[in-house]
Each structure stands twice: as C-alpha cells, then as structure tokens.
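Protocol step 6 of 9: fold each sequence in the batch and record its structure tokens directly after the sequence line. For illustration, a two-sequence batch is reproduced in full.

Sequence one:
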Amino acid sequence: MDNLSSLSDIYNLVVDNCVKEYGLSESARELWLDPLIPVEMKGNKVIIATDLEFKRDTLNSLYLSKLEAQFTNIIGVPITVEIIVNDNNPTTVSKFDNIKNDEDLSNKIETMVNDNKITYTFSNFIVGPSNNLAFAAAKAVSQKQHEKYNPLFIYGDSGLGKTHLLSAIQNEMQKNYPGINIIYISSETFTNEFLHSITANTTDQFDDKYRSADALLIDDIQFIAGKEQTEEKFFHIFNELYKLNKPIVLTSDRPAKEIKSISDRLKTRFSSGLAADVRAPEYETRLAIIQRKAELLNFKIPDDVVDFIATKLKSNIRQIEGVVTKMNALYMVSKMKPTIVVAQNVIKDIVSDHQPIPITVDKIISEVAKIYNVQPDEMRSPKRASNISAARKVAIYVIQDITGLPYENIGKEFGGRDHSTVVYAIKNVKESMERDSSYRSVIEDLIKNIKANQ
C-alpha cells in the first residue's frame, strides 16, 4: 500500500478497534497509540514509528499483538507490525509529554492510576477461605436465589472486598434482569437524602423511591447507628421490602450485634438472614490478588516482588491492588521497573494515602449544603434567601460544635462575618432545637454523620 493517507486512515480504525476490543483507557490511547506514526506497508508488514526506545519496548510488550490482530481484522490477511524508533520523525505530542518537573510526573502517574480502575464483578473477585461464604451468598443473591439469605449481612474491616461484592451483585443483576430497579447507596448518602427530604418537605417522594426498589444494597450500614430518625425510617423501609421478598444486602465493619447505639429491633432484622464475614486474606490469596490485578493490567511483576507485596500488606485488599496499579503507572510513564525497592516506596505512599482525613470546615459546609440543597459558595456569600440563611446558621452551629473554632475564625469562613453574627446563628439554632424535636434530630444526625465519616 503506497498511499500513506490510506494507511493512516487504517491505523486510526485499528486504534479505535483496540480501544473497543481490549477496553483500553483514554489515557493509554493518548499516551501510547495516538502518537505513533504509520510509515509504510511492505507486503504483509506494517511499519510504525515512535520517537524513543523505551516507548518502542513498552509498545512491543503491551500492544504489538493487539495492533497486529486488528490490522489483520481490517485488512483481511495476516499482518505483522514492526515498531521502529525514528528520532527525525517525532510523534504527535500528547497531553502526557513535556514533563517539566516532579509535580508534572506525579500528576501523570495519578492520571494513569485513576484511569485503570476496574469494574467490580464476580469474575475478578479472588475467592479464598477468608471470604468464600460471603462470595457464594452474594452470587446467589445476584441470581435472585436470596430466600435463605435475606437479608444478606456482609461484615469485615475496611478494604477487604465488601464494596466489591455489592458492586458485583449490582452488575450481575443488571446484566441478567434488564430494567431491574436496584438502589445501591452508602448509608451516609441515605442519611443525607433523608435529612434533606425533611428540610425540603419531600419525605413522601423519599419513601416512594426506596419502597419501589427491586433490590436494596447499602454500604456501611453501621453509620446510621444512633441517628434516631434515620434508623426509624430505615426500619420501615426494610420491613416493607422484606415483606415483598425483595433482596436486601447490607455491609458493615462489624457484626450487627456489635454495632453500638443501634436499636435492638434493627439488630434483630440484620441478623434474621445470613451474616457472612470477610476476613484478611491468607498469604496464598494475597498472591492470587496481586497476580490477578497485574494480569488485568497486562503488567508483569517478578515473583520476588509479588512475594514482597504479599508479605508486607496483609490486611487490606484495596491497598494491595493500589500498589500494583501505581507500580504499573510508574512503569508505563517513566519506565521504572517493578523491583522490591519500587514496591517498598509505593507501599509507603499507598498506606499513607489511606489515613483518615481530619474533619475540615469545608467538609462540614459541604455536608450542610447537600442537606439544604444549596451551594457552599452561596453559604459563604452575602445572600440572604431563607434556605441559604438557614443552611448558613446550621453550618456555623455544627462547625462550632465539632471543631471548637473561635467565633472570629468561624466568621472569617463566611465572608468575614463578625462575632455577633456567629453568636446569633448559634443561639438561633439552639433555640430551634429546644422547640422542635424533629429539627433537633436532624442537626444531631448531621453531626453524627460528619463525625462518623471523617
């Protein structure tokens, strides 16, 4: 084929097919495939140019077979692809080129990590002695074989796969039962939606939404503990769906009987079906998790590095997968080979990234804004609309209650309002709480919810 324009058109189709066929991320396409330059076609060989040797090596390792397969599909005869380095014919600049400093490199790696998120399914969940009961029960629920497991209560520490199983149930149900109405939500969001429905006088719509669900999946149900109105509402929704034999799956960081401050009747409901725990994975399971994650990323990790990661990270699957993902990004971006030293540094970063985030004023304002359906910037502005003013007063009260900031500092967070304005807002909220038990419950639940999710 002598027409270079035609070869370029074919190559564009090849790239499109690679993205569709192999599920390549947008960043992978822009970083590796789009910048390549089709040079010529000699017989059954296509020659493509890149500008650096390390790019050629990576392309040969990760993408050559994919390119050859798609060229063969489009042209109709077996095609081989040769990738050459041509410094005189630079490739198209992508958004990842021209790295100027460590911050640019860090941002590039972070982009690769975020773009390599994998859909949670049963097929990519690694089963071992630590989670086999929860896995089997979750799969049965996804096939509507939930009579013996309703509700299914999955509990265990953070990062062990509870959210993976919930997502897998949702994905499997949507695939097998098109049009099914699945509500998958965190208890924090459930609480915020309910509190907003009270302030907006839309509790009827809230009830209709949840009682019409064909399946209810709630993550971290322990966070409704001690929030009286939220517990009461959830109790009635649970009963309604249970009577209709709708699948209910809940996750928690502890067994139902150990959730403090939750009503006994809810504990009884949570324990009436099947309680399945997920524990820290055994060494062999950790090895399998690392190898499976690397396989999904088409990333080869030496056995000694796999062993090192499995030995160092013993109690959090999310962190284990995060280490593999970041090491892959480091290799793709800067040709940093997966060694024990690299793994050790990445483990330090990943573990540090998972430390609790302290409660900030911004977090509190954001949570209050959700409940009152206003924007955080509006609460900080001079606007005096009733809903904005009400939200602002509540935010001031909650900030003072949780953080203990001096009144002057709180005022500065709201456009420089003075000491007397802050005092008035706090007094106003306190008086409203004393007069109206429903209002008091909303404020108390809001504070508990923010503290629980720090």
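Sequence two, same batch, same settings:
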Amino acid sequence: MEPADRGEARVVEVLRLPRRVVHVVTLTSPTVFLLVDERAGAILVNSPPFSEQALSVVRRVANPDFIFLPSRFGARDLDDWRRATGARTLASTEEVPAIDGTIDEPVDGGVRMHGRLDFLLLSGRSRGTCALRVKEPPGIVFFGPALSHAAGGGFVLRAQPDDYSFENRLIGALALRDLAFEFAFCDDYIEKGVTVASPADRAVHAAVDAALNELK
C-alpha cells in the first residue's frame, strides 16, 4: 500500500452531524480524514505528504489538535505535520516501532479522549492496526486498513499478501459484530469513490460473516 501523489490537496466535507463533521483530504492513498468534534477538537486520521499548500487548506477547516495513525501505512511526513500544527500524535503501542515519526501518546484499546472517542485494537493488517471510534450516537468508526470499502458499497474483509496476520484480523473483527455505529470509513475511501451510507454496522457485520464463511 504505497502512497500515491494526487497533486494539490483539497479538503472536502463528506459527513455533517450535529456535533461533528468529517472531511477528506483529497491528495493521497491511504485516504486522510479530518474529524472536527465540538469537544475532542480536530483530529487528522492519517497524515498526508506535507506541503505549505496542504497545511494551508487543512487549516482553513481547522488546525489539527491530534494526528491519529490507524497504522504505519498512513504516516507521511509525520514530524513535519507535528511541528507545523502543534498536534499531539497518537497510534497504538504495538504500531509505534513501525511508524516513521514521533508518537506522543501510544494508545491501547479502551483508552478514551474526552469520554466520547476511544480506540479499537484490530491487529492483523499490521502488527498494531487500531481503529478510532466516536462512541456518542450517531457513532463513527475510522477503520484504517483493517477493513476495505467494497466497490459497489458495503465493506470487505479479505487477506492481503503483506498482512501481519489475517487470523488476527478475523479474531479482532469478530468483536465488531457486537458494536453499533452509524458510519464507517476505511483507508481506501477515495480509491473506491464510495458514498457515505447508514447504518454502517450492518454492512461491517455482513463483511465479517462473509469472511468467516469463505473459510468453511
């Protein structure tokens, strides 16, 4: 999963809710999201290649308070973004050694931000893949590379040649069947050109069940 340059960055709103807004930074793959939450602040999910132009367009929406990396795949020019924005960087404890850049706050499952956001450990795509969840309804989950968007809508859970452990991915995904959330985003959001749909939890549960059925 190599980053691909897409020219100048733009920030596009893709979901507006009463207390938070989700944007995408349309520059590279994996997709970079900017979540602006009225209490937790502004959170970049993944970091794009750094440039003054990219920094400017992100700041027109909000200067990031945090940069969260679901996996090493989404870390581009992390220290440049950290210095320019003053944002605190976060990633799972297991993923920190694989990330090129400084992580200020290693996190584990169950850790919360302002009581509204927490982290779901989904090791398998990489050693420390971790999702960010907005718990307060309507819930949102940023899955990073743990799941993928399906071209026709919905989600898929399939083994990748460079998986750290697909077995771990399945085990972690099983717990998702007990979670309720309205919206979900993955690292390939721009690649698939998907439309935000609700409720996302049913589509994720179906993806997990399909992956289990393929093993039978």
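Proceed to step 7 once all outputs are recorded. Observation for sequence two: The mean pLDDT is 90.
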